[in-house]
Amino acid sequence: MNNLPKNEFLFQMFNSNIKFSKLNFMVHASRGISHNIVSNLLDNTFDIIYIIGAHDYVSVKNDIQNYKPQLVINGILCRDGYELALNEVGNMEIQTYVNTKNDPCLDSKIGLYYHLGITTVL
Question: Is the entire prediction scored with pTM above 0.85?
Fold first, then answer.
């Protein structure tokens, strides 16, 4: 999974699908380091921003803070990797993540993997 964002074929396929759908006039796809991309965008210009990025707490928090100004009023910021809400995760699980930096984490109660960095921000 870590190599998928670097996969040129997938990025080209995505762009091809957008063009085929005739929505390329309204979709702007960028790929790179989050804080580098956001510096090239204008504030209050996007209805929807979808971020595929790192899953640790600091990265997710920075993505939200950095990209929120680019949204129009009532715009939507989407983020990949959100599997469980914080109230669905046990306190012991949170402490395990903080101490080990495991990502993704396995929730022992329900047996699902999740990204606690995203869970704790959202």
Answer: no
Token pair 């702007």 in the structure block, residue: 28
Alpha-carbon distance 61 to 79, whole Å?
11
- In this structure, what token pair is assigned to residue 13? 């396929």
> Average pLDDT over the chain, rounded to whole?
85
CA 11 vs CA 7, 18, 30, 80: distances in Å: 7, 11, 9, 16
| Predicted pLDDT of residue 72 | 96
pLDDT digits (tens, 9 = 90+) for 15-39: 999 999 999 899 988 888 888 899 8
Domain positions in the chain: 4-79, 86-121
Q: How far from 33 is each of 2, 51, 54, 59, 112, CA to CA, in Å?
A: 14, 11, 10, 11, 29
105-106/46-51 β-pairing: unpaired
CA distance linking residue 88 with residue 97, whole number of Å: 15
Residue reference for tokens 């995760």: 89
